[in-house]
From TrEMBL:
It comes from Anaerolinea thermophila. This is Malate dehydrogenase. Belongs to the LDH2/MDH2 oxidoreductase family. Keywords: Oxidoreductase. GO terms for molecular function: oxidoreductase activity. Coiled coil: none annotated.
């Protein structure tokens, strides 16, 4: 295969992820919940948040930054709302249980909203609205993250890449799913470029003097020293991050911290004031809306299907052959990856072999 890329079967990779998590102390159901989110990312072609992050979770679990035995505390609850403390458990476990709670509330009362504090990184944001979509609901998910994005007119990495995700069922095979960071790019894409030994495009990241940075390894190091920042969505030609991305990111930060008295901005750096590694205390916010409480599911699905088809049927820009709606590219990619396997380059392969060796997972064979 070209550029040292090999493809690993989805089933093999999924079982490997479960094995890594169980050997690191997670229960089988929790390991499965985590692997479900990671493999969904690989399936959807989101290289940044799948197997590429497995070593990161392993190292954080090993360092005691994440609790392997998940426990969630209900801090406050009403028929339609809840505040959850994740007690530093794996983010995917906290998030799937919290989203499920929002869905259950919506099933009973039409709406469910769950605010979470003291969680950890939960992978792709879009996984959780899809849980609601499967139940014929609209789902929304938000999370804050380690500071690496500057506010507009600033250069200090202050906000997380704070994604927003919104999913809804349609009368087509592919649900509508918007799932994206509120920064021009997200940290994971810089990691992917670093592994591929490729430069970062100008306009994604600036240094403390607002000059563009393009070396991926440098950027990942300098962010930790407050000397590099990703730019918020909608940046201008002067390389200043856009105010709309900055404000959307602030909204995500509010939803992920204020309702649950959770950590925000610099409190999520992963370091204590003495510079020692500390827990991340990530916050999330989940919402589910039961469509049946508004109109029949079929009517809604047709309404949204008509809307999306109208969008896709509009005039293409010169040189373009197709207009997409959110979630389509990833939905189509999922079919390809399922058949062909997950592409893994030489540096990612090194990480996989490192985990295999560390944990004695000799039963897995990764062919070249
Ligand atoms: N957990 C975290 O802390 C965290 C932080 C940031 C990002 N992430 C995850 O990283 C992943 C990637 O984020 P991203 O910002 O790079 O996403 P992206 O820019 O690749 O895609 C964002 C959205 O745009 C849609 N899209 C793409 N091209 C389109 C087109 N031509 N027309 C219409 N829609 C189109 C996609 O379907 C997707 O929903 C997401 O899954 C996100 O949740 C996680």
């Amino acid at each position: 295969m070209s550029q040292g890329i090999v493809k690993i079967s989805v089933d093999v990779l999924y079982e490997f992820m479960i094995a890594v998590f169980t050997r690191t102390g997670l229960s089988k159901p929790d390991a499965k919940a985590c692997a479900d989110v990671l493999i969904k990312s690989d399936l959807r072609g989101i290289e940044s948040h799948g197997v590429g992050r497995l070593r990161m979770y392993y190292e954080r679990l090993n360092a005691g930054l994440i609790e392997p035995h998940s426990s969630l505390t209900i801090v406050r609850e009403s028929p339609t709302t809840a505040v959850i403390d994740g007690n530093h458990s794996m983010g995917m476990v906290v998030a799937t249980q919290s989203m499920q709670m929002a869905i259950d509330k919506a099933k009973q009362f039409g709406m469910g909203a769950v605010a979470v504090r003291n969680s950890t990184h939960f992978g792709i944001d879009g996984y959780y609205p899809l849980m609601a979509v499967e139940q014929n609901m609209i789902g929304m998910s938000f999370t804050n993250a380690r500071p690496c994005v500057s506010p507009t007119h600033g250069t200090l990495p202050t906000l997380g890449t704070n994604p927003i995700s919104f999913g809804a069922p349609t009368d087509e095979e592919c649900p509508f799913l918007y799932d994206g960071a509120t920064s021009i790019t997200q940290r994971g894409k810089i990691e992917v470029l670093a592994r591929a030994e490729k430069p970062v495009p100008v306009g994604w990241v600036v240094d403390s003097q607002n000059e563009p940075m393009i070396d991926a390894d440098d950027i990942l190091q300098e962010i930790l020293q407050d000397q590099a920042a990703l730019l918020p969505l909608g940046g201008s030609s002067e390389l200043l991050g856009g105010h709309k991305g900055y404000c959307l990111s602030t909204i995500v930060e509010i939803l992920s911290s204020a309702l649950q008295s959770g950590a925000f901005l610099f409190q999520l750096s992963g370091f204590d004031p003495e510079g020692n590694p500390s827990r991340f205390r990530v916050g999330h916010f989940f919402m589910a809306m039961n469509i049946e409480n508004f109109l029949s599911v079929d009517e809604f699905k047709k309404n949204i299907g008509d809307l999306l088809r109208t969008l896709r049927a509009t005039r293409n820009a010169p040189g373009q052959t197709r207009i997409y709606t959110a979630g389509e590219k990833e939905f189509e990619m999922e079919k390809i990856v399922k058949q062909e396997g997950v592409p893994v380059n030489k540096n990612l392969r090194k990480d996989i072999l490192f985990l295999q060796h560390e944990l004695g997972l000799d039963e897995f064979i990764f062919h070249d």
